Amino acid sequence: MRLDDAAHERVASLFGDITRAHPTVPGATENVLAVDSGTSKSNQWHTDVTFVANPPQVTTLRSIVTTPYGGETLIADSAGAYRDLPESLRALADSLRAVHTNAYDYARPPRGSSDAYLEHHRQFVSTVYEVEHPVVRVHPLTGERGLFIGGFVRNLVGLSKSDSDDLLRIFQRHVTRPENVIRWSWSPDQLLIFDNRITQHYAIDNYDDLPRLLHRVTVAGDVPVGVDGRPSRQLVGDPSDYSVVAEVAA
To answer: Which pTM does this prediction carry?
Structure first.
């Protein structure tokens, strides 16, 4: 059964209020973001929109144009990654907080990018957002702990850049261990749904310059809370026009 954008939105809304397409990038519609290989490739591990204080709780992706080879999406279990950590590293991660921003490495277009890529980058950083999140997020429904990091993280609070980078590499290696990752191969007219609160994902750039197009609809999320009970806090930018703050189900 084929879904159009309106039906896609209706499916996503079963999980809660849907967000605008994106805080800064214009959508295919008000609530649908075109994930188009012609303007950007999400080939870095990330959790969607973690540069706002209440990132989406659910991401839904629908395939419009698929490639004859490659173009898979990897999804990693950040709760499994947390469980994999040695006890001493879990205790350290529990105590840390990180600054996430849209104006950092993840958003930079590669050298020699096309005009379309450069315009997408300009839009992506047209309003700067920064937020402080716990490195370990407690899932509001299951109580699981997961490493809440990824490509939008700029630094760990209170640490030097070198120490911050080294620790983030260690934590991220655990997230992306093969044991924690599934590989989704796309066919036309598929709908993929995953919990954005406790996963990361990565779109593999292994299809040369072939066209690839997905549509994304996301569901409004709650404000992350760390092991110590402290919530995330917005440092720069006001994301209230992008998404309501979801209430956690009892």
So the answer is: 0.93
Distance between CA atoms of 7 and 1, rounded to whole angstroms? 11
- In this structure, what DSSP letter does residue 188 have? T
Instruction: Please list, in sequence order, all residues whose beta carbon lies within 8 angstroms of the beta carbon of residue 218, skipping any fewer than 6 positions away.
Output: 12, 18, 19, 33, 48, 49, 56, 58, 59, 60, 196
C-alpha 73 chain-centroid distance: 13
pLDDT profile of the chain (250 residues), mean per 10: 93 98 96 91 92 98 97 98 98 98 71 72 90 98 97 97 97 98 97 98 95 97 98 97 87
Q: How far apart are CA 133 and CA 230, in angstroms?
A: 9
Please, what is the angle between helix 161-175 and helix 87-95, to 10°?
120
**How many Cα atoms within 13 Å fall on the side-chain side of residue 201?**
24
Q: Give residue 155's pLDDT.
A: 97
* Residue 102 vs residues 70, 105, 178, 239: alpha-carbon distances, Å: 27, 8, 27, 12
| Residue 222 phi, psi (nearest 5) | -90, 175
